Amino acid sequence: MTAIPLGVPRRPVEFTLDGQEVRVPEGSTILDACRAAGKDVPTLCEGDTLTPKNACRVCVVEVEGARTLAPACSRRAEPGMVVRTDTERARHSRKVVLELLASSVDLSTTPAVAGWLKEYEAKPDRFGPDAARVDEQPRIDNDLYVRDYGKCILCYKCVDACGEQWQNTFAISVAGRGFDARISVEHDAPLTDSACVYCGNCIEVCPTGALSFKSEFDMRAAGTWDEERQTETTTVCAYCGVGCNLTLHVQDNEIVKVTSPHDNPVTHGNLCIKGRFGYQHVQNRD
Q: In the list 1, 56, 71, 249, which could disulfide-bond 45, CB 3.0-4.6 Å?
């Protein structure tokens, strides 16, 4: 018999979503309702283990009576509200946001973006060759992970994961203003001289590949990274007795990176340095 954990009972909230009456538990967001109804609303900065920051604005929807478009990831469902997700206004806003993002940063390793650009007929090239871009070389200053700010959309998910929402290390924050804004450690020092504890939880939540395993970065550079050939196996970390779950990503009989299930009640996708990066002994042939 499977034990079902009981939480605080939540009253249902009824509202209209794209002409249909829907019912979701109290406290749910519009995005939660869209996903429950099978509607594909794009989002980049939203994470299932983090509080939404409303940074990317790709998930905006139209709420009847509201002056501005609402971010579906953070707007709570309210009784009687009327929401439309596929209006011309919402689609145009998503198109422009995608164009602005794709014209300023490299989204080539961002899942689903290529399909969204096609769906919304976004044309980042229309801004011309003089469009300001974050053309910065990847920072490779340690053997575990790479920081490629040329792919960063400033969604702040890594800052939240490193800060008060999970790790409480506070090793990174936003530095600079305007186009000079970027995620940085204190005094823009090398990662090895910072407060980073190399848990890799920032990599877990990064939506664009701006933060990646050194192994993945090297394989992509060599043209050997192929997710279609990879298998995923979830196991229990053997380093201590906490019981963290690890998902091993294996390609050609080699572990290429480690993630953690977000629905795990112990870790919620978070790991320590040993769980995230301490897999080399498994395939040490010496």
A: 56
| Residue 109 forms part of a structural domain | yes
Q: Is 104 inside a domain boundary?
A: yes
What does the alpha-carbon distance between residue 173 and residue 183 come to, in Å, rounded to a whole number? 6
Tell me, what amino acid is at 39?
K
Inter-residue contact 211 to 203 (CB < 8 Å):
yes
Residue 26 lies in a domain: yes
Strands 60-63 and 82-84: antiparallel
Of residues 33, 36, 35, 56, the one with CA closest to residue 44? 56
Label residue 160 exposed, middle or buried (CB < 10 Å: 0-12, 13-18, 19+): buried
* Number of folded domains that form the chain: 2
Domain match, 158 and 269 both: yes
Nearest to 164 by CA among 53, 259, 32: 53
- Domain assignment of residue 177, given as a range: 145-283
Q: Are residues 167 and 217 in the same domain?
A: yes
DSSP letter at 188?
G
Q: What is the pLDDT of residue 232?
A: 95
Q: What is the pLDDT of residue 7?
A: 54
H-state helical runs in the chain: 30-36, 88-104, 113-119, 157-162, 201-205, 214-222, 273-277
161 Cβ partners below 8 Å, 6+ apart?
A: 49, 50, 167, 201, 202, 204, 205, 270
